[in-house]
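Protein 1 of 2
SEQ + STRUCT:
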Amino acid sequence: MDYHDRHVVVTGGTGALGTAMVGALVDAGAVCHVPYINPAEADRFAFRDNAQVKLVADIELTQEDAVARLYAGVPKLWASIHIAGGFAMAPIGETTKSDLMKQVEMNFVTAFLCCRAAVNAMRPTGAGGRIVNVATRPALEWRAGAGMVAYTASKAAVAALTVALAEEVVKADILVNAIAPSTMDTAGEPQGDAQGRLFRLDQGRGRGGDDPVSRLALRTRLPAAASCRSTGEADAVWAHSCK
């Protein structure tokens, strides 16, 4: 699909996976809107001077007003990709309520607020759109979340959000998908076992498109050679762990 002049929000776009995602979209002709908080990340962002990339400063994705401001600045939103999030690993006995709520805020609340803002921006256009969330393998295979219960629960909420929202907005031709990667070897993540497995969360009823957002930028390659992809052949959520 030709993405020329299509506007896409990419949260977490200045990180390792986000940078690869933005690169794939820019190559396809998209205009990417990338929010950030940390000026240092924006300073070293590979696409900061690209004419197709719009960096948006001081966007705290857990705050409704900030998210609303981000999406209000995007003309005719076509896609919204939600990579921003956080990871913490600790036994439940060492996990405080504050630790739990931090995971919920970083992973579920950011995805929820961005999904809501994206849907509200896409509906009036009548042109449909694409939304992609990032869950995790333990969000689907719960026993794999032992030792990181708070993180697993927050990402399981993202998976549930994805399936429920896909059903809610499919008639508006808004297709909602998620990927569920295993451990990724990137500049910000430790190495780990990343066996390729396919997880089917739900079977939807819509139609997808042959485009980089539906397939999460075709087969996005991270600088450290991790690879994840998500199909978009339906509004169903198909999740692949990294290969």
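Protein 2 of 2
SEQ + STRUCT:
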Amino acid sequence: MAVGPLRKKISNPYARALYNVAVKQCILNETTEDVYKLYHFLLAEPLVWLYLQNPFDTKEEKKLVLKQILNNQVGEYTWKFLMVLIDRDRIFLVQEIIYCYLELVLMSEWAPVKRIGVSTATELTETQLLKLTKKLEKLTRTKNIFLVPKVDPTLIAGFVLETHKKKIDFSMNYRLKHLANHLGYSLEL
């Protein structure tokens, strides 16, 4: 998900506040786990996401829906944070806040989440991101993977996965160059 500059400017202080509380209370791993659950939940349940964005539903209704859905699945501080977002009419930014929070965590020295960049020729849908995340979790035997999507039209088709150590290229661009090299031709795409 790409975060626009204005939304990021609004979301970043909220993400930083949650991060700072988590560090101060020594619950960074638990809070990150909560945020990660919320991230996957919103990807898997787009109707809930749409409901939270609806300005015509009251704050109390949104709190009640979240309470019924989450049902004590997140920690106390994460729950209070979500209530603050509802009270301040910022719950519509929850996905951007999650993204900014996870960026902060990933840049910290205590990163409990594995960050994987995925470059594609076109933007991936939420369903595709969720399926790719689940597959990568299964392959890497890690349950905390955060995909950072990026669009790169030069790839033609396919995708490229990047971590801080490795780059795995499944793009059509790479395959065509590899085939041309094998046939003894130089190919510039």
